[in-house]
Specification:
Blueprint lengths: L2 E2 L13 H10 L4 E7 L5 H6 L6 E13 L5 E9 L6 H27 L6 H6 L9 H10 L6 H9 L12 E2 H10 L3 E4 L13 H10 L3 E5 L5 H14 L2 E4 L19 H10 L8 E2 L1
Parallel strand pairs: 1-2, 2-3, 3-5, 6-7, 7-8
Antiparallel strand pairs: 3-4, 3-9, 4-6
This protein binds adenosine monophosphate, fe (iii) ion (2 copies) and zinc ion.
Zinc ion binds next to loops.
Length: about 290
């Protein structure tokens, strides 16, 4: 059994459409693939429709979260949720909160730039966005390009909007313990994504992973392209000590990353356990 539990489509920052991703998973010889776009389930329907015969789809998402860093600050972490009900009340209300927070934050960034004399109209930046679109820095960056303030989105990030830049404001991402409870409340299975990926920035402390286990965290993604051998060994020991499942996944993003589908895989017994934990969820694994 070839099982890859983490892949992105064009619905977030991958380059394969959900349908193309299903075809690519079959072509890579996978038996099971999880679709885990960032902060959205919008690709599920297309993936289901396009599911090739014999391939199983685990419907999921990768939630952007904040965790305590153990030193009084916070670190950005990603939480994979599998087989949760997207119509669950907690999922819906948290998505609405994030949408509102993102709009307020983008408006505050645009307001600050306008106050400093840049030709940006916060109402126009916000007003041009469909209500369901998560407002983000790329929208402000494109407005700055249109206004001729910068020559490219890249330059807008470099000069103004990057973290540490003069107009950067942090996001109010979901607290990771809340997200763990949210996925569980929706009948799903929460697994911490790439928790030891140091080259992405500061990582979550083992003590915080232990706390999350107490909140209902089911597993940790140990075999991930961004983890070294030593990091996998340490994380594997921690998972064993805490009774957490160990998963392996490519975190495929199509042409946006060099990893390939099935480059890292999950043990069939672990998948079986994930499906047992999600038993009763209205969203179950489906086979094409
Ligand atoms: P936000 O969610 O508003 O914090 O914006 C994050 C998004 O901005 C990311 O998903 C990227 O698509 C984009 N982004 C971040 N840094 C850069 C950069 N240096 N150049 C271009 N786009 C970037
Ligand atoms: Fe991504
Ligand atoms: Fe991630
Ligand atoms: Zn990912």
């Amino acid at each position: 059994m070839r099982i890859d539990l983490h892949a992105h489509s064009t619905v977030s920052d991958g380059t394969d459409t959900p349908a193309e991703l299903m075809a690519a998973a079959a072509a890579a010889g996978l038996d099971v693939v999880a679709l885990t776009d960032h902060d959205t389930t919008a690709g599920w329907a297309e993936a289901l429709d396009a599911l090739p015969t014999g391939l199983r789809l685990i419907r999921g998402a990768e939630f952007s979260c904040l965790a305590p860093d153990g030193r009084g600050g916070r670190v950005s972490v990603h939480l994979l949720g599998y087989l949760f009900d997207p119509a669950s009340e907690m999922i819906i209300s948290e998505a609405a909160r994030l949408r509102d927070e993102r709009r307020a934050r983008l408006r505050a960034m645009a307001d600050r730039m306008a106050a400093d004399g840049f030709p940006v109209d916060p109402d126009a930046v916000l007003g041009g966005l469909p209500p369901e679109t998560p407002a983000g820095r790329p929208h402000l960056a494109r407005a700055l390009v249109s206004a001729g303030v910068v020559g490219s989105v890249e330059e807008a990030f470099h000069r103004f909007l990057g973290s540490g830049g003069p107009y950067y404001l942090g996001r109010a991402d979901t607290d990771v313990a809340t997200a763990v409870r949210m996925v569980r409340a929706a009948g799903g299975v929460p697994v911490l994504a790439h928790p030891a990926a140091r080259r992405r920035g500061p990582v979550i402390a083992p003590a915080v992973i232990a706390e999350l286990a107490a909140h209902g965290l089911a597993g940790v993604e140990v075999d991930h392209p961004d983890h070294t051998g030593d990091e996998r060994a340490a994380l594997g020991d921690l998972a064993a000590a805490l009774g957490l499942l160990i998963t392996g996944s490519s975190d495929y993003h199509g042409a946006n990353k060099t990893v390939s589908l099935g480059q890292e895989m999950t043990d069939p017994q672990v998948l079986e356990r994930i499906e047992e934990l999600a038993a009763g969820s209205p969203v179950t694994a489906v086979t094409g």
